[in-house]
Amino acid sequence: MMSESLYNALIVFTLLNLTDIVTTYNVVRKIGTRAETNPIARFIMEKLGIAGLFLLKYTGMAVIIVIGLLENNLEASIWINNIILGAVTAWNSYMNYKLRDRKAE
Questions:
Q1: Over the chain (105 residues), what is each successive 10-residue block's mean pLDDT?
Q2: Three-state secondary structure readout of 33-99
Q3: pTM
């Protein structure tokens, strides 16, 4: 049985990852993959499109969970990721706001 705190961390983790997918997709749709600053992510998205974005997210989620399990501190691992991912989605949201009137090129 998991603690309420871990359950809450996992809920936030899931929602932030979904938000990251949506906001990243919207930015990439508007200005292309050059918006992605991670060269590995950019390469995968150029080759696989939206499927690559999902592949990256699910792989990243799995890595965070494995690290947390290996360190015997899953909750801390997830909350650290949540803080970082919160900043990433805030940035993506800001970019979407700046690009709101721009159409796909």
A1: 89 93 88 84 89 89 92 93 94 90 62
A2: HHHCCCHHHHHHHHHHCHHHHHHHHHHHHHHHHHHHHHCCCHHHHHHHHHHHHHHHHHHHHHHHHHC
A3: 0.80
